[in-house]
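ok so i was messing around last nite and threw this chain in just to see what happens. nothing serious, just curious
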Amino acid sequence: MFRSQVIAGILSLCVFLAWATGAPAEEPKPAPPAGVRISIDGNSWSAWPQFLIPIAKEAGIQGQIDGTKEAKQRLEKGELDVVTYGTHGKPEDTGFVTKTTELGLKHNPNFRFYYQAAWLVGDGKAGKHIKTKDDYDNTKIDELQAATDERRKAAEGVADGINKTLGKRVVFIVPVGDAIVKLRALVVAGKFPGVKRQSEILGGDAMPHLGGLGASLQAYCHFSAIYRIPPPAPAPLPEGADQAKKDAYAQQEILRQIAWETVSKYPYAGVAK
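result:
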């Protein structure tokens, strides 16, 4: 009895001290979601596995499986939970999307398909001036956003049609194009450290294929949509890091923020309630 009173007194004192010092009780962090069995499909516009796959490990997610190899056989066995698909083709080209969703859903009732609403080849209608990679530096952000909106809405129409046919929501959209526009807007405004030109985000050719920063943002967007949580914070900087490393750290923080803000607020991505 006396021992119980002592323990109760100690607990009460701890609570009082926390209240008196203004220190809020630390809430337990939610457990990370379970890993998914995932296949990455498409062409050079798809989310690169070397960027996307490791993010789950960073987030402490267990059980993720890269099922990209022999994906069709895995679908037929119900061994895939998610397929992501990215191309620069027109959203109306839905043959692969339809066949994959039907096959995936037939063997796995929780199957999900993520269609990428991508950045535009040559900046679409906003890029009539583009002949070389450097020409992207002269694209006007408002015109680029308008062209991206048009392409994304076409993808939404495709998703709506397939989901209606299937009788449930299976096709989701990852708004990578919008995230890239936000990133380029920050570059134009001088608010993205270490980068001064839009073309630096867009890789080494005039199509444009994404460079490392753009590909990282693409991967963070897909991760956010698939797992419905923010990308994990970048690894802490070592003591005495030079300015280049500080800039790289800040870049990764910003990319992850852009991805989560864009995906979490976009209803077709499946995160927004």
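not much to say yet. The first helix runs from residue 2 to 20.
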